[in-house]
Amino acid sequence: MNRKMISRALAFLSLAVLLCLGAKAADVQAAVTETAVTEASVSYVSEVVPLERNGIALFLDYTKTEGTQPDKNILLVHGVTYSSHEFDIDYQDYSLVRRLAREGYTVWKMDIAGYGRSEEVEDGFMPDSDYAAEDIAAAVDLIAQETGQDKIDVLGWSWGTVTTGRFAAAHPEHLNKLVLYAPILSGIGEFNVEEPFHHNTWEHASDDFQRTENGEIDLDIVDPVILAMFCSGCWRYDGEYSPNGGRRDICVSPEEILIDLTKITVPTLIICGSEDPYLNYDLVGASPQLLPAGSALEMIEGGSHIVLLEKPYYNDFQDRLVRFLEG
Question: Is 0.70 surpassed by the pTM of this model?
């Protein structure tokens, strides 16, 4: 069996992991028995669309509300360790994919080469930021061909802002609006990344969630079910190892600029939490002056790197994003 097949066998250990991370059994059980998704009357349809670049099969799928033919498209691009499943955690109304589908979008998501459901790569350093930008370009070109719609929106999260930012600078022809969520505008600190693949663990998968002073997951900010489903998805889709090319790119000096905002020519939203340990807030604050007309900066007070999935903030995140896209 390959790395991912071995690791995915562990995907159903969610409850045990939560308890190890400090969640109380009563909290987990109470959350599991809560009322399910809002908008329960809405049905969705999803389909995988074949895509290949550089001889590597890439995962690309779309979701829309059943019985519709939306004239708006958006592509969601993941970060440096875990793949696109993060955007569609189907619990209550947390799923960004389903919210955007209800807003009338066909919502596309992709996995960069070597990640998630895309074909594995032999060299984990190969899919670096520039390589990933070309994977994104291939996906956007295919979406334009499949839908007949010339311009689509693109959202990148974390390292996905580096890859989508570079894509936007090099291939603006099919791009309508760009969203940089939790943007890694400069290096996050010098660290020698020597291994071509990152060794994923349950603890690492939970690292972006905020913690209390005693080091436990802060269950006032994260719903235990979201934590369990997120970590379980990481093991199911990403397995024990992920490529390290992107990590090597971003683990450099904070003085090194990773996204040249002056080369982006479409309206761009910078959206992030105020408590994100990876961000250069000086650059974030200056970003609107470097971006074209129609761009915006949205800061969610109290949110972290994973504000998309934080109980007090995820609705605000979704609302601000939709307002920008529809504006």
Answer: yes
Inform me whether the pLDDT recorded for 82 exceeds 50: yes
Element containing residue 168 per DSSP (H, E): helix 159-170
Place of tokens 């498209």: 73
* Strand boundaries in the chain, DSSP class E: 44-48, 51-53, 56-65, 72-77, 105-111, 152-157, 175-181, 197-199, 241-243, 268-273, 296-300
Check residue 41 and give its pLDDT. 81
How many helices and strands, by DSSP H and E, does the chain display?
A: 11, 11
Q: Which two tokens stand for residue 87?
A: 């955007």
Under the banding of pLDDT at 50, 70 and 90, the label for residue 40 is: low
For the chain, domain boundaries: 35-200+240-326
Output phi, psi for 179, to 5 deg: -120, 120
CATH level 3 topology of 35-200+240-326? Rossmann fold (3.40.50)
- Alpha-carbon gap, residue 76 to 80, rounded angstroms: 14
